[in-house]
Design a protein that fits this description.
Four copies of one chain form a homotetramer.
Chain A: E1 4-12, E2 28-35, E3 41-49, E4 55-62, E5 66-71, E6 87-105, E7 112-117, E8 119-120
Antiparallel strand pairs in A: 1-6, 1-8, 2-5, 2-6, 3-4, 3-6, 6-7
Chain lengths: ~120, ~120, ~120, ~120
């Protein structure tokens, strides 16, 4: 097993507008989660904003020895994540996971990408 | 709570020139700060240069359970950050925070992005 | 010597389709491995998927004081890595190594890049 | 002070060919170094290759409370770094520094960027 039970992302942002075929070229933000253990993990995601209380938890299940790449765009319960709005995220699991944060920005004709491992907690 | 009280960014740079609508497509550098604690944090940012003494501190307040995405372009007190000039930054807070560094470069017609979690101090 | 014996990447993905000359502008994902020790290291790579059991191990040898930049596109034994499919990876070695994950996406006319150091294990 | 005395980058690469005005849009790789201490630091950079012995050390001095953004393209002593050739790098200093690795790729008409903090040693 590898990873940590808590991870944080500070620069969340879903760009407004896209060029190119859906869904792969839609502007989006993603948290990719890897669970290398045999057992499933239950993951809770909390979204932090600049000027309102956090939203969540968003419940995500990741099977044993599986990865799940979750688009912030697709979160719906308890509420969707607004576009063109700065946010941050904390990911908490009941077992060790590894989290990476990626953004695809296709607001202009040619897409741009960024990615970073999230910051692991203690 | 998650994070550290000190963070560093080594590759700061605000590209000179932009394509696309303001302000979202302006070339810019950002430090995104997440404060997961209940209490506000006071953050001090120091900018390091290649050939002159550091500038700062820049004072930034981040509310409890809030994120703030700060563009280096917008810093004014005690002085603005010059464009097209290599710099670095240290971020210090009176409570644990998480910091991520992002750049959008729209000097050419289609923007490019980079991002990395900052380096946490002890 | 610098590094760790276990590393993880959560956001693996080989984009489908490319623009530009082969092989340098082919859409690809890479794990770059650095071995600073005098001795060779034997590396085992395991690929995790969203909805099936992991694949591997993929065996990679990296000489002493050498680096090897391995494209996921080129892995063949025990099986190739499918395109346009989310995956994750764990890299394990019998000595300390340093791992970085990079993607070049040339699905659109102008390529995009992302990169991050992988997450080191204990 | 913040940082470590040893850092590693696994995915070094200077793309061959460029579009746009020199020197800012030249395809390049950079290691950005921050020295937050009062005293100067002496930095030694070693370049690792896939199929030959390492090159270096490259000697770099970084003043107290200064940053230096060094392009791999500009290294000359003891030898230059070849283009379109995978490499890796280890950075060692006699005091704590912070290192970040960035690439600008302008082989195609619109540039792409990647960046990551380097991996700190013990």
């Amino acid at each position: 097993m590898i990873g940590a039970k808590r991870w944080a992302i500070a620069d969340g942002y879903i760009p407004e507008g896209s060029h190119g075929p859906e869904p792969e070229m839609d502007s989006h933000g993603t948290v990719s989660i890897l669970n290398t253990a045999d057992e499933d993990v239950d993951v809770e995601l909390t979204i932090y904003y600049a000027d309102r209380d956090p939203a969540g938890p968003y419940e995500i299940a990741v099977g044993g020895e599986r990865t799940k790449h979750v688009r912030f765009n697709d979160l719906e319960e308890p509420e969707s994540v607004p576009r063109a709005t700065p946010f941050a995220a904390v990911i908490e699991a009941d077992g060790p996971i590894v989290c990476q944060h990626t953004r695809l920005d296709s607001r202009q004709a040619e897409n741009a990408l960024l990615s970073t491992m999230a910051h692991p907690g203690d």
